[in-house]
Sequence to fold (124 residues):
Amino acid sequence: MTVDRTLLGRLRSRGEEVFTQISGELTSNPRFMKAMEGALRGKEKLEDAAGRAVRSMSLPTRSEFKRALARIESLERELAALRAKGGSGGTRRAKGGSGGRSGRRNVAASGARRGSARKTSRTG
Fold:
């Protein structure tokens, strides 16, 4: 096992030497340095353009999204706790018809009934 560690240590040491040599040669090369500078400028321009595009679309920032997600998770925990206590917070909303999907379905269904009542009154 110590033989394996010694071999790995030597390989690692040699790899670091080669890396240091190559990076030293590259940084002393003016063409390479100009290419790197151009690449960095291009990256900055791309990041600026992407930032402007995101802001123009009115997309939420990462922190705003995380805050909203945390709030949703908090509300889900509160709802689960209320349901566990026996108080069904979800049924109150559906019965009242204020908001939620079930409320919209009820409105749509009652509108359809009214429409059919009008049709019968016209024909009859």
Remarks:
- The radius of gyration is 33 Å.
- The chain is about 90% helix and 0% strand.
